[in-house]
Amino acid sequence: MIRALVLLLILCTDLSCPELVAAELVGAAPVSRDDPEGAESSHRAISSAAGLAVVVTAHPLATDAAREMLKQGGDAVDALVAAQTVLAVVEPQSSGLGGGGFLLHWNARQQTLEVLDGREQAPSSSQPDDLLRSDGGPIPWREASSQLRAIGIPGTVALLWDAHQRFGRLPWDSTFQPAINLAREGFRPTPRLLRSISLAKRIGTGHSPGFDQLYRPGGERPSLDQVFRNPVLGDTLAQIARDGGPTFYDGVLAAQILNGIADLGSNEQAFQGWSSADLKNYSVIRRRPVCHPIQRWKLCTVPPPSGGGLAILQTLALLDATGVISNPRRPKAWQRFATALQWADADRSYWVNDPNDWPVPMQGLLAPQYLRGRAKAMLDQPYSLPGPGLPPGRSRYPFARTSPGIEQGTTHLSIVDRHGNMAVYTGSVETVFGSRHVVAGMVMNNQLTDFAFQPAIQGRPVANRRRAGKRPMSSMAPLIVFEQGQPVLAVGSPGGRTIPHFISRVLMASLLWGLTPEQSVAMPHLSIRGNGLVAERDSPIPWPFAWTELSGGEQEIRSQPLNSGIALLQLIQGRWHGVADPRREGTAIAIP
Fold it and tell me: What is the pTM of this model?
């Protein structure tokens, strides 16, 4: 209670909050396609730090491992490898070696920004109708998330290897040592990990004896005071540390993974298996970031197959074009924000897919004239359910419209080293513990449920349809803000389809409202689901007005916990300030 009052006073110092109005808060069920990882109603003290080098990750042990790499003279990428491999051990419900992700990397010496796309991709046996029933209808989401056909070829190890080969300063094997030690010697599980194990059981683990044997031995989850070990994962990490990243895709470990997948496939008749070429031919794609100016800043993020970055850039551009309401105490400011989210979502859910399959009209979707037109339409129709726009260069709508996919088992970390290099990384296994299948000690993703289940509707193709070798649309959106050519802010978050909602709200608070990093992270979230509003319940800083005022009587509104995991870095007077989201268990640590 004292922490909550202190946070409220911090915000009210600038915002002069009125007396909060009590209202009955109705929560949503924690297990659904929209919220498969759940959310907490209680929060911790905000972890923040300031210095020349700063690390913010989703778990204290990962933050410690990253800091140790920086103390040894490592690059931000060395710290990234150490942090992500540790997260694979201590936060397996969210990311790991069996998943994928996106890295936004800033090279301070060369003044270059680059995206590494380590997104999972569909194996060669994939068919467009893999997640349809025999009658042509989609398989229920919970059932689909457990299918071997939902597992994409993992990209995490390839991404870490590629980044380290180019930017790492420390020996590759040394960056793995903290994770190997934790997997073999054990660690005490956190409350969130234990809740996630229970949540995975509710979603379904009966298809995976390996999961239950590891995470629910004897039918019971571990206890808080019990040391948890995963020695098989420790051996896998040791193999990769010794033989390098390529062994995951074409080596002893690759053979072990293929054998493990084949063994699991004996229980799933419709699964066509993986070939050695599926692993051998996987590669990280180096992409150019997508950037857009907002007032005096330039915002840069990851391009398709992620649609999260496009949604953030469009949201901020629509707010800027319609006139920023700079008073967070006014419900109208938040209503305008929610409307911008909705209009941006309409474009990303329609147009974004793997650009190797169909070109995404990013330039047109961010063209000033196009955004001005969308902004005008948004003001004229603030409560309508918008459809996608028709950007310059497109004379027709080529795709059918469908509901977007969701990924929620996700983590994010932000790192800046003493040289100014930055690693801003979001990784995922999709649902909580992914598919709940375990191979070589690794939790395997279910990212292929991010494809549209129906490849065509009434004879028209769906943009995000499933095909062999294709990467599904994502919402992951690591982002860096530049001012006068130099980074001044970096941010990202887990949260599935709501990732761009969370990050847009942080950027609105930080850039447009001028709030402190702690305030920007801890203030309430607002999201859009269909034509309704979702107001965060029990946010670290309470709403400065009754959340029921958000709808203006025009939209359905509900309140529930929202499971962000923001990792924010902001440059203030020459020092980097890092803040970890108190909604999860992350920490920020600085090297002075």
Answer: 0.93
